[in-house]
Every structure is written in structure tokens, then in C-alpha cells.
Specification:
By secondary structure, the protein is of the alpha+beta class. Helix content is 44%, strand content 17%. Among the domains are: 63 residues, Orthogonal Bundle (Arc Repressor Mutant, subunit A); 75 residues, Roll (SH3 type barrels).
Length: 217
């Protein structure tokens, strides 16, 4: 693929991830996720449409084929970088997420291939999100807050929306709410908080996270 300015890559990545999380992709959602102004988003979307990266269906923004290819390349390198930074360098989830945001723009094809070899061709990032171009097979999942008290579960995936909430990645990692961890729902509050027991510890998960953490019963 042709090289693109990092701003185009970041916008394509954001649109891809919002769609992946089943969020209606409009300018307001992009502005919220990226922490930029609505006018800035409007101008960039206009430029991306002119470049053939996005299509607009009324107010909904969709990646065109060229934009989809660019997004998959960037997301793939971001998630491989997260896996390398956590599995090989031992960095925390939160630090790896921030650093991968820099690496995704500069990883070359030879480096990417070497990372895949060292990591054993992983199919997900550390949070369980699929790596584009891998042999990922999605498990059958449901949101944590849909489980009844007493239900056992296995954590499968921490969606991107939670990665952008301050402190959430640190909280989940410290609480062992990570892909592969097994637990039990021990309580559910009217405010949406779900209490789970994982590794002998009781942890309260607020509604915003419990509605998004994907588990397999």
C-alpha cells in the first residue's frame, strides 16, 4: 500500500474500531474517541472522502475499500505491537496501549514479519481483540452484565472502548480480569455493577465496563 500521513491512519483506525464495537460511526463519536473538536473531524472526513478512504451514507461514515485496507494494516500493527510489548518486554496493558499507538505508524513489513514469528503468530492482542489478517476464530460471547448471579464464565475480550477510558486497563489487569481468566458472578446491583470472583478475589465491575466486557459462559 501507499504510505499515508499518520493522521489518515489514525482516523481510519478509529472508524474501524468504532464499527468493530458496534458503535454508529458519526462525527461526534469520532471526536469523542480521538479527543478532537467536531470541526477538525469534519475537515478530516472531507479530505478522506476526497482521497477515496471513506464513504458517507447520510451522516454515517463507512470505510471505503482503500480505507478498510489501511485500517486493517494499522490495527494489525498496533495489536501486534501491544502483544510484543506485553509478552516480550513485560510492560503493563496501559503502557503498551500508549506505546503501540506510536509503533503502529513506523513498523515496516520485515519488522512485522519478525514480530509475528517471535510471538508465534498470535490471533489477538493482549485484550482479546482480533488481529486483522490472523487466523482468529471468534468464540461465542455475551456481555458480562448479561450473566445471572452464580454463573461461571471465562473472560474472552476487552473491547477497544474500554482501552480509552482512563484507568480502566490498569484496573482490569490488576484485578486479573484478562482474557483466559475464569470467574463467577457473585452479585449484581441495580446500578449495573457486577461483582465477580476471580482468583479468590471479589471485584466490583461498574456498569460501563460490565456492559462491554465479553465473556463465554
Amino acid at each position: 500500500m501507499a504510505e499515508w500521513h499518520p493522521a489518515f491512519e489514525e482516523y481510519c483506525e478509529t472508524i474501524y474500531e468504532l464499527d468493530e464495537d458496534d458503535v454508529r460511526v458519526v462525527q461526534a463519536r469520532i471526536a469523542e474517541r480521538m479527543g478532537v473538536s467536531r470541526p477538525s473531524v469534519s475537515e478530516m472526513i472531507r479530505r478522506m472522502e476526497a482521497e477515496g478512504l471513506v464513504d458517507l451514507d447520510e451522516h454515517v461514515i463507512q470505510l471505503a475499500s482503500k480505507g478498510q485496507m489501511l485500517a486493517e494494516k494499522v490495527v494489525r500493527r498496533h495489536r501486534l505491537a501491544e502483544r510484543f510489548l506485553t509478552d516480550i518486554l513485560g510492560l503493563s496493558w496501559a503502557v503498551a496501549h500508549t506505546e503501540a499507538g506510536k509503533w503502529e505508524h513506523v513498523i515496516s513489513e520485515p519488522v512485522e514479519a519478525a514480530m509475528v514469528k517471535v510471538l508465534g503468530d498470535p490471533t489477538t492482542c493482549p485484550h482479546g481483540n482480533p488481529i486483522p489478517g490472523s487466523h482468529y476464530e471468534p468464540p461465542s460471547t455475551r456481555a458480562l452484565d448479561e450473566l445471572l448471579v452464580g454463573a461461571a464464565f471465562r473472560v474472552e475480550r476487552i473491547p477497544e472502548a474500554l482501552e480509552f477510558e482512563p484507568g480502566v486497563l490498569d484496573f482490569l489487569e490488576d484485578s486479573h480480569i484478562v482474557p483466559g481468566a475464569q470467574g463467577t458472578v457473585t452479585a449484581s446491583s441495580p446500578d449495573g455493577t457486577v461483582t465477580v470472583e476471580i482468583d479468590g478475589r471479589a471485584v466490583g465491575v461498574g456498569s460501563f465496563a460490565s456492559q462491554r466486557i465479553l465473556v463465554s459462559p
